[in-house]
Amino acid sequence: MHPGGAPERAARAAASAPYARAWRQAWSFPEPEPPAAHWPDEADRWADELRRVGVRRAVFVTGGGNDAVADVVDRHPDLLLGFAHHDPYAPDAATELERAVTERGLRGLKLFAPLLRGPLDGPDLDALWGTAQRLGVPVLIHIGHYGSAGGLTFGRHGGPEELARMARRFPELPVVVPHFGVQYVQELLFTAWGCPNVHVDTSGSNQWVRWMPYKLTLEDLFRRCYETIGPQRIVFGSDSSWFPRGYVTRYLDDQLRICRELGLPDDHLRAIFAGNAERLLGLDD
Predict the structure, then answer these.
(1) pLDDT band at 2 (very low <50, low <70, confident <90, very high)
(2) DSSP, residue by residue, 78-119
(3) Which of 187, 193, 204, 223 has its CA 20 to 30 A from that of 71?
(4) What are the Amidohydrolase-related domain coordinates in residue numbering (predicted)?
(5) Whole-model pTM over 0.85
């Protein structure tokens, strides 16, 4: 699923390191620590962090394989949820998704479209999408630039046109696109406008707006999404991933402030920052 071999990935990581350090300095984020030697300690640390900041539930979308994520979730089922993340082109991809959901309790599927070795709307993935649709679980599909500064600009497959065709062919499948679609803002807005099953996720610093060919701010992104698809298909995401940064309350504070300044009513704020995720994850009760 990942393009390039280990040397190429290592070279790409080395090239991006100065950009990553500059980004952390700009946001006053500390240097990342290595993960805990024992995964239960890491899981417990995240549980403590979520309780500290008052987050009721959080979703791990990747984490070393489906069983590894499920084990973390099982350790703190009152706080944690997980998504499957495996090779969608493996012969048993659909079967593995069914196992991950029905036997291990995972709540969705995460894919990085730029890393795919085939198109999102190709027939080889029909069984996977059909299984997700039948199970009623969302698929979170990252399109556009991958890997922060120095990362992969785009992949051979996984563009917004493929996403739109797939979403139309599986109209009951909830599709969530993170980071406002990165550089594909216009394409994502048109896709969501025409496909009621496509949702927009707000996660991360969204620093990519600095390199767009036209002025674009986080406020612009919220305004355009809100005007195009309304509050029921915008989903807040934190993009929290490492310690000692922990849960990124700064992203939450900034996005909530912007939505309040735009004049969104309380019920729409509740939908964007909690309710929509609850519905997609089957937590309505």
Answers:
(1) very low
(2) TTEEE-B---TTSTTHHHHHHHHHHTT----EEEEGGG-SS-
(3) 204
(4) 51-283
(5) yes
CATH at residue 210: 3.20.20.140
Q: Answer yes or no: is pLDDT of 152 > 70.
A: no
> What does the alpha-carbon distance between residue 31 and residue 112 come to, in Å, rounded to a whole number?
25
φ/ψ (deg, to 5) at 33: -95, 155
**Band of pLDDT at residue 19, cut at 50, 70 and 90:** confident
Q: Is residue 285 part of a domain?
A: no
Whether residue 10 is contained in a domain is answered as yes
Q: For residues 122 and 35, is the Cβ–Cβ distance under 8 A?
A: no
Domain of residue 150 covers 6-280
CA 4 from chain centre, in angstroms, equals: 23
How many domains would you assign to the chain?
1
Tell which residue, 122, 115, 7, 128, has the closest CA to residue 62. 115
Give me the sign of the Cα torsion angle 96, 88, 130, 107: positive
